[in-house]
Predict the 3D structure of the following.
Amino acid sequence: MKVFNEIIRQSLPVLFICIFGEILAGVFLMNIENYLNVLPGILILVPAVMGTRGNILGTVSTRLTSALHLGSIYPRIRKNPLLKTNIKAGILLSILISLITGIAAHFACLGLGFQSMGILKFAFISLMAGFLSDFSLIILSVFICFVSFKRNIDPDNIIIPTITTISDFTSIFFLLMSVYIVQAI
C-alpha cells in the first residue's frame, strides 16, 4: 500500500498539470491552423510530428529511468558513456523517423487526393522540426530524470506525462518555425 500511495502522490499533481498543458497545446494549435494551411498538405504532418516526438522521447526517458534504478548510470552528465549512447540513439532515431514521416506525408497526400507541397519540402520540414524538438527535449528529459532521481522522486512517475506534454508544445513550435523557414526560401 505504501508503494501505491507514493505513486499516486508523485504522479497525480503532474498529471493534473499535464491535462491543462495539453488543453493549452490544443488551443495554440487551433489558433495557428490557418497559418499552417499556407503550404499544401502540411496539416497531415501535425499528428505524425506530435506523436513521434512523444514516442521517441518516451523511449529515451524510460531507458534513462531504468538505468538510474539499476545503477547503470548515475545522475550526472560527465563520464557517463551509457547516457551519451542513449542521447545519440535518440537523435539518430529522430532523424530517421522524421525523414520517413516527411516522405510518408507526401505519399499520403497523393494517395488521398490532396495537394502536396512536394517530397523535399515535406522531408525538410519534418526533419528540421523533429531534430530541433527532439534535441531540446532530450536535454530536458535528462534534466528531469536526474533532478527527480536526486530528490528521491521516482522519475518513472513523472517523466512520461511531463515530456509528452512538453513535446506537444515544442513539436508544434518547431513545426511552425520550419514552415516559416520553408516559406521564406
